Automatic annotation (TrEMBL):
Species classification: Bacteria, Pseudomonadati, Planctomycetota, Planctomycetia, Planctomycetales
Gene: rpfC_3
Listed SUPFAM superfamilies: CheY-like
4-aspartylphosphate PTM sites in chain numbering: D52
GO biological process: phosphorelay signal transduction system
Molecular function terms from GO: protein histidine kinase activity
Protein name: Sensory/regulatory protein RpfC
Assigned EC number: 2.7.13.3
One Pfam family from the record: Response_reg
Length: 192
């Protein structure tokens, strides 16, 4: 999976690109939102954008909005817009009227996959990119992309909700359903 790292501070861009590669994915870099848009227009293999919030000219939220409007095509048809991770050094405990905090709130509303605070936690980034890579898996007979990221996130959220509610009965029932589906997948793999 190819990840576009966007940051207008050169050493930060380079650092996060190397981190993406250390995790095991291909990284390309852009030093501005404008450069990122050009790369997204020309490279249909970019599936994830890891962008800083605060950048001169076009910030990370503006980049997301413009990327959603791009028409990207491959030999197999339309290429979906990439998933976005927003990274920022702005902390929510600062003044709630701060423009950048309003931009973070807007990012959540617009549908960023993840908002991460700098310095990025390597394990958290690795987990997020691994989850996102599930969305890039293609079926063996077609080039149709399967969305495995969304259901994975829903399962994780359900587990968190059950544990937060301290509901042992729900936990047991949910585990039973998961085990049944795991058995179905194992049976399917045996027949392949």
């Amino acid at each position: 999976m190819k990840v576009l790292v966007v940051d207008d501070i050169g050493y930060s861009c380079h650092y996060y690109a190397r981190l993406v590669e250390k995790i095991g994915f291909t990284a390309v870099m852009a030093s501005s939102g404008y450069e990122a848009i050009k790369l997204l227009q020309s490279d249909n293999e970019i599936h994830v954008v890891l962008t800083d919030l605060v950048m001169s000219g076009m910030d990370g939220v503006d980049l997301f909005q413009q990327a959603q409007q791009l028409e990207r095509y491959s030999d197999h048809g339309i290429v979906a817009a990439p998933q976005f991770i927003l990274m920022t050094a702005v902390r929510p405990e600062n003044n709630a009227q701060d423009r950048n905090l309003q931009r973070i709130k807007l990012a959540k509303e617009l549908g960023f996959s993840k908002i991460m605070f700098k310095p990025l936690d390597q394990d958290e980034l690795k987990q997020e990119l691994n989850d996102m890579s599930l969305n890039v898996i293609h079926t063996s007979n077609t080039e149709t992309t399967l969305d495995l990221y969304s259901p994975t996130q829903k399962i994780r959220q359900s587990v968190k909700d059950i544990m937060a509610a301290d509901n042992k009965e729900a936990a047991s029932e949910f585990l039973q359903v998961l085990l049944e589906e795991i058995a179905n997948l194992k049976e399917y793999l045996k027949t392949s």
